[in-house]
Structures are given as C-alpha cells and as structure tokens.
Amino acid sequence: MPEIPEMENYRTMLLRTVTGKQVTGVWVERPKSINVAVNELSAALNGQVIDNVTRRAKFLVFHLRGGLYLVTHMMLDGRLYYGTGSDHEGLPGKPHVIIGFSDGGKMFFCDLGLGFLHLVDSLGLEAELAGLGLEPLSPDFTWESFMELFRKRRGAVKPLLMDQRLIAGLGNAYSNEVLFAARIIPAKKIPEIGPDGLKRLWEVIPRILREAINNGGYIEEKYAQWDNRSGGQIPHFMIYDRGGEPCSVCGNPIGETKLNGRWTYFCLTCQH
Ligand SMILES: [Zn+2]
User: Which of 197, 204, 233, 264 lies 20 to 30 Å from 98 when distance is taken between CA atoms?
Assistant: First the structure.
C-alpha cells in the first residue's frame, strides 16, 4: 500500500502535470470507486480547474477552483498515471476513473479496488479526514506529542505505528524500516521500550520518510512515460522485503514473520 513517500511522489508529479489545467472530460469505468452518480461527477468537474494538490496521511486532495475537492486513497493496489491518451500501453493497471484536460492530457486512476475517488465539499473533506493521527512531517510531530500518544499504550510497537489514528501515513514498509533504524524489535511491547528507544523512534520516523521521498518512494510503476523517479527507494530499503538476505549492518540473515497479519522483518543482532 502506498505510504507517505509514495503519495508525496505522486503529489510532486501531479503538481507538475495537472495543476492550473481545465477539466474537459470525465470517464468512470467503475462507478463503485466514486461516491456520487457518474453524471454528477462529470457536471461538477467539467470546466473546473485544479488549483492545488495536497496530502494528508495517505490521502491526496485535489482543490477545485469552484470550492469543491476530490479526495483519493489508493488503498492496496491503486495507481495513478498521466498520459496523453496515445500511450495507454504504459498504464499501470485497469483504469477505473479518467479525467481529461483541455491540453489533451489525461489522469488515470487505476486499480482502485478498495481505494476511491470522492467528490466532497469542505465539510465532506473534514469527514473524510476525521480521526487521523499525527502527521509525521508536520511541525505537530513533537517529542511531547509523540510520547503522549504512546505513554499509556501496552501493545506491540509495530502495529501501533501503523494505526492511522495515532500516526497517520505510516504503513507496513516504513514501519519495518523505522524500527530497524531505531534498533527496536517490531514485536516489542511499548512499556518495554523505554524513553531512549522511543526517542530514537521519534527521531528516525521523519528522517526515513524524507529520505524515501527524495528517493522517489517504492511504487515501481511509472506515473508517466518520462517518470524516472518512482521506485527509487527499493534498493535503499534496509530490511523491508529482504527476509533471508544478509543484514547490511551486521551480515546476519534478516528474519521475517507475520505480526498482526503483516509481513515483518527484523535483525536479532541489530534490534532489541
Ligand atoms: Zn543486523
């Protein structure tokens, strides 16, 4: 599932390709992916200009000039693609919603599955984003607020890192990575970690996410034919998806197991 670095990577490329452009066509191949009738979406979007694209957690928000918003979540398999319409062979999956622009460009929302594209007003946007926790790359992500979140928790640390109501935007890949960087075993219970370990965790979360953003995230499929950034994070993963490979710090094999149903990677030498 795309996490903060992947959604930031999309955002950077969306800002470059769709902002300031006027919508001239909307095609919905899978009405289940949207929250209004197809003709309602079409009527609301046609003639509109996308003024900005912002991100909250794993959501992207398109700001329409008329005051409405499109909010999208990729869930497990969703992918975005931008093309001119003559290069559909580059599509990363089955297009479920397509938005066309006056310059001939088209934005494809592919393989949304459990993902979606919702048309909302400002109250609707608030409802979509309600209940999300701390945003790790925002100034709100202070040591005090982080500690407050975990102070009374008893459970294993990794599932808590992935709980969107606590920290918003971390998923399975980067939870593994930040725990390796903080030298904490993923199944360790919060009360056993201690303030030093929690502080290391708080410090590494924004750093690991920023590095992954700079690397282009781990989604391999291109956003556009010219996209040579996406997927650049993959060789930089220290531990995620590297079960059985030698740990790049100590050389011992990386362990893998399922924790709360999600693949979890660890080094018993480097993490305690
Ligand atoms: Zn190691």
Answer: 233
